[in-house]
């Protein structure tokens, strides 16, 4: 079994990732303490790597880190790696959703996708990245009470006109993070099979 700490002390995030990866091959625990990481990379890969490296250097155990965001076609470069800080650090998730809806008023192209990059940092000489993506569009109003972030207005192509916030079980099986995790799982299974 592979054991990792998550580059986050968020227990809920660790549990969610563990649920996606299953229990048979990988064990993920939240880090004992949150470390401050300056996420100034220009890509999801750079930010995931920075988090993983910081936690590895501090704890000296294998680390899983993720970086994710929402890419909105009509607002190139405004969200993406900056999704958590869209509109400023002081805004709540609900405020960010309202701001995005406001910015897209009367905009016809509402295409968007969620992206996630997972970094599995075994040691400095052995680092792997896996990416997942979920395509959809931004709705015109909030729907649903589940999920978090932009889920109340993000309509995956497979669910439209419903949002992710209306289908928590579906999200767990199909999210951008789940797809990245499944790619990682396939890779690690192959690695074991070859060893």
Quick recap:
The chain has a single domain, classed as Maf protein (Alpha-Beta Complex), CATH 3.90.950. Helix content is 33%, strand content 25%.
Structure description:
This protein is α/β, with parallel strands linked by helices. The chain has a single domain, classed as Maf protein (Alpha-Beta Complex), CATH 3.90.950. 33% of the residues lie in helices and 25% in strands. The protein has helices at residues 11-21, 44-59, 93-103, 168-174, 176-194, and strands at residues 2-6, 26-30, 63-72, 111-123, 126-138, 154-156. A 6-stranded mixed β-sheet has the order 2-1-3-4-5-6. α4 (168-174) runs parallel beside α5 (176-194). The longest helix has 19 residues, at 176-194. It starts with a strand and ends with a helix. The mean pLDDT is 93.
Number of strands: 6
Overall form: globular
Total DSSP helices = 5
Q: Give the strand order of the largest sheet, numbering strands 1, 2, ... along the chain.
A: 2-1-3-4-5-6
CATH topology: Maf protein
Q: What structural category arises from helix and sheet content?
A: alpha/beta
Compute the number of structural domains: 1
> Mind telling me the C-alpha Rg?
17 Å
Quickly name the level 1 CATH class.
Alpha Beta
Overall pLDDT score? 93
Uncertain spans: none
Order of helices and strands: EHEHEHEEEHH
Major sheet summary line: 6 strands, mixed
Beta-strand content estimate: 25-35%
Distance between the termini: 14 Å
Helix content: 25-40%
């Amino acid at each position: 079994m592979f054991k990792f700490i998550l580059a986050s002390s968020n227990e809920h995030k660790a549990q969610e990732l563990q649920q996606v990866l299953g229990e048979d091959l990988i064990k993920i625990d939240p880090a004992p303490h949150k470390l401050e990481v300056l996420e100034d990379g220009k890509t999801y890969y750079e930010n995931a790597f920075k988090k993983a490296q910081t936690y590895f250097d501090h704890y000296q155990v294998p680390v899983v880190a993720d970086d994710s965001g929402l890419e909105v076609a009509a607002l190139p470069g405004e969200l993406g790696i900056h999704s958590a800080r869209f509109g400023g650090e002081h805004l709540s998730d609900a405020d960010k959703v309202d701001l995005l809806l406001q910015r897209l008023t009367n905009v016809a192209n509402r295409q968007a996708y969620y992206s996630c990059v997972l970094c599995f940092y075994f040691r400095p000489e052995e680092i792997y990245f896996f990416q997942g993506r979920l395509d959809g569009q931004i709705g015109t109003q909030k729907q649903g009470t589940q999920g978090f972030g932009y889920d109340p207005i993000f309509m995956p192509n497979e669910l439209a006109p419903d949002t992710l916030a209306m289908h928590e079980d579906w999200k767990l099986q199909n999210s951008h993070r789940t797809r990245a995790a499944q790619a990682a799982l396939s890779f690690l299974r192959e690695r074991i099979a070859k060893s």
